[in-house]
């Protein structure tokens, strides 16, 4: 029987974060795709094998799960340089977009080529047990079941075309098991438990808490009490940071004539430690503080309103944790608003990596625990065979 490799994958709206195996391999790829042709030109073709594959992901994807099948894409950094680059649109459902699946399959294929899966000539047969998640709103609408069934029971193929090191390799991906978790629940698991699902935050475990997860396209507010997510009170909103990042990008283009490749470039300008909120215009360092402050403060006010409304309905809440990439972008604005207004007990993760990787880490903990319990159950069944 083919061994199934463990994968925890957070298909975030900004980037896809994945953890594989015994946590020995991680991938972080911008969530950007661009339709392409097979014969994309390469500058310095003889150097193809010396380049980083992550900077040249060029693939054909075949899967019955896709609405548009058997097409060719540039992915990640390579796609960001294209004129027709596509990022997920506000209002779209992560579970129903081809882009979510293309990013997922590409990421798994990039791991599979490094593993000891069965291989015939240039075709690798890879099997995965995967933990992933969807926004709370989509789970409450029952879209997790459809998403899971798209992945299970089919073979999904990624063919590397003009990709450094992997050109000509095909990866057939099958799923042994797919677990789809609500994002708010996953954030709670990550806050209170370690990698072995042992409780590490005893002070937090019995508190009434909110977790506001601000993503690119949506915001989830999980309501935790009695160590469980209250599904009735938890809420998902179609409000993320993508639209604001796009507005900043457009205004910079109009005012300064500078074309930024993607929303990720905008995030870098806003969050970097040196020369924050500055860009280069014709060789001169230029402030874009006026643009970023106005647009992000407006978004922070909307996010704060969501917090206030949910807190009012859950008045015995003790603390709200802000998580996700969007929280990192809005952190300073939300703190200022809170200090000047209601003064709620709110907490942010100062470590950017911890905040951004929170979901992937949570899915890893949950899928590892699922595999552990399944193996334990199978072992118990072998020891005590059913009597006739």
From TrEMBL:
Residues 209-347 form the Alp7A-like C-terminal domain. It comes from the Bacteria. InterPro entries: Alp7A-like_C, ALP_N, ATPase_NBD. Residues 8-185 form the Actin-like protein N-terminal domain. This is Uncharacterized protein.
């Amino acid at each position: 029987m083919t061994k199934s490799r463990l994968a925890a994958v957070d298909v975030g709206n900004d980037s896809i974060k994945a953890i594989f195996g015994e946590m020995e391999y991680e991938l972080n790829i911008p969530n950007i795709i661009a339709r392409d042709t097979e014969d994309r030109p390469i500058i310095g073709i003889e150097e193809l094998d010396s380049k980083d594959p992550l900077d040249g992901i060029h693939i054909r994807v075949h899967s019955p799960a896709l609405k548009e099948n058997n097409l060719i894409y540039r992915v990640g950094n390579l796609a960001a340089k294209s004129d027709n680059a596509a990022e997920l649109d506000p209002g779209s459902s992560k579970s129903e977009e081809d882009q979510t699946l293309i990013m997922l399959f590409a990421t798994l294929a990039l791991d599979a080529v490094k593993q000891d899966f069965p291989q015939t000539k240039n075709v690798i047969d890879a099997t995965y047990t995967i933990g992933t998640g969807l926004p709370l709103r989509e789970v409450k609408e029952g879209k997790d079941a459809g998403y899971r069934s798209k992945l299970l029971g089919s073979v999904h193929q990624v063919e590397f075309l003009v990709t450094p090191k992997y050109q000509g390799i095909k990866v057939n991906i099958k799923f042994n098991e797919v677990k789809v978790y609500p994002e708010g629940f996953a954030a709670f698991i990550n806050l209170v438990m370690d990698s072995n699902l042992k409780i590490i935050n005893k002070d937090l475990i019995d508190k009434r808490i909110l977790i506001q997860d601000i993503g690119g396209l949506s915001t989830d507010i999980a309501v935790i009490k009695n160590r469980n997510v209250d599904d009735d009170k938890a809420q998902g909103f179609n409000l993320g940071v993508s639209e604001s990042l796009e507005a900043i990008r457009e205004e910079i283009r109009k005012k300064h004539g500078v074309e930024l490749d993607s929303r990720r470039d905008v995030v870098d300008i806003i969050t970097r430690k040196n020369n924050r909120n500055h860009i280069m215009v014709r060789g001169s360092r230029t402030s874009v503080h006026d643009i970023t402050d106005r647009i992000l403060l407006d978004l922070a006010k909307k996010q704060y309103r969501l917090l206030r409304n949910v807190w009012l309905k859950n008045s015995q809440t003790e603390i709200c944790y802000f998580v996700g990439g969007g929280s990192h972008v809005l952190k300073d604005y939300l703190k200022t608003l809170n200090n000047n207004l209601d003064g709620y007990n709110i907490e942010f993760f100062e470590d950017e990596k911890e905040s951004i990787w929170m979901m992937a880490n949570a899915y890893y903990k949950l899928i590892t625990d699922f595999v552990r319990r399944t193996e334990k159950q199978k072992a118990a069944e072998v020891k005590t065979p059913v009597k006739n």
